[in-house]
Amino acid sequence: MSFGSIATWRMAHDGIVESLNSLEKGGTAGDAVESTIKVVEAYPYYKSVGYGGLPNIEGILQMDAAFMCGDTFKIGAVAGIEDVMHPISVARQLSHDKFNSFLVGEGATKYAMLNGFERRNMLTERAKKMWENRLAEMAEHNLSPYDGHDTIGVVSLDSHGSMSAGTSSSGLFMKKPGRVGDSPLSGSGFYVDSDVGGAAATGLGEDLMKGILSYEIVRKMEEGLSPQEACDQTVYPFHDKLTKRYGKAGAFSLVAMNNKGEWGVATNVEFTFSVGNDSEEAAIFIANMGENHTTVIEPITQEWLDAYEKRIKAPIK
Ligand code: GLY
Fold first, then answer.
1. Which residues 6+ apart lie within 8 Å of 67 measured at CB?
2. Is 214 in the pocket of ligand 1 (CB under 6 A)?
3. 3-class SS of residue 280
4. Per-block average pLDDT, block size 10, for the chain (317 residues)?
5. How far is CA 11 from CA 179, 186, 246, in A?
6. 119 C-alpha vs ligand 1 centroid, how far in Å?
């Protein structure tokens, strides 16, 4: 049987490599999704997910996450959770509950505390400094405050034929308290059906929600489209539609994998992702919107990776 994992952004790569090792040994798709996301949630230099994520306008880090099992359609999600090391693990545990499986704000945080999930002050000094700098810039230049919605979204297939999907995000930098993005919303941020495949999103939640793009990609794969065709034929027509109605579309990118381990992506911005399966070793690619509703996908260069490493670790003044 095939297996594989695909995830948004370069930041997912180390987790994808680890998860493919465990999938190769018979590990489950659910564990692959959770472990991939946990690696990203714990890394302090990724500023849009978990520890080190950028806070809301009040300087409070509020995180969204979701987990879905493609065998049972069970979904667990949290939104606006605070001071919890691994929102994805809370979401996964909630997915086992028939009721109360999507918790927000204080209720989500309280659930995590009561159920023994690791607590942590998730706001690093670095993220706090970036928030202070942005407040000053806003006051000085009247800038749009919003930035950074690089969610981790993962879809995995295991050798038993099961699929899972998950997301985790600190959402939009400088968001209003209580703002929730697409990441914990099924259909928008993620969707998976083990009989077909799954998809996950990153980008501007407010626009992703308008198109329910993850579900739409899975639906198209069910109609017989390959993951790449389903991504292209979902993302670009919707990008055009938003552009027509609003003059511009927010940035968004989607990844998909079907139940054979074949994959696809589509994006309206420069977008990196990590993918591997039983026949392709885990690798990072860079994707851009091509002509006529196509996606141009190229292997990442060492030069790009070096510049990225330098950028994410650059000292904050
Ligand atoms: N895609 C993450 C967000 O908009 O919050």
1. 30, 33, 34, 75, 76, 77, 88, 91, 92, 94, 95, 164, 165, 166
2. no
3. coil
4. 96 97 98 98 94 96 98 98 98 98 98 97 96 89 70 98 98 94 98 98 96 98 98 98 96 97 98 97 98 97 96 92
5. 24, 23, 31
6. 23
From ligand 1's centre to the CA of 169, what distance in Å? 7
* Active-site hit among 151, 167, 202, 267: 151
- CB of 169 closer than 6 A to ligand 1? yes
Phi/psi of residue 223, each to 5°?
Answer: -75, -5
Adjacency order of strands within the sheet including 271-277: 102-104, 75-81, 63-69, 163-169, 152-157, 4-8, 271-277, 283-289, 295-299
Q: What is the pTM of this model?
A: 0.97
Whole-number Å distance between alpha carbons of 278 and 300: 20
At 120, list the tokens: 């942590």
* Cβ proximity of 189 and 214 under 8 Å: yes
What's the half-sphere exposure (Cβ side, CA atoms, 13 Å) at 308?
15
For residue 245, how far is the Cα from the chain centroid?
Answer: 26
CB distance 151 to ligand 1 below 6 Å: yes
Judge whether 156 and 164 are in contact, CB under 8 Å: yes
Which residue reads 């650059």 in tokens? 314
Is 294 marked active-site?
no
Specify the length of the chain in residues: 317
Which CATH number does 4-312 carry?
3.60.20.30
**DSSP state letter for 300:** P
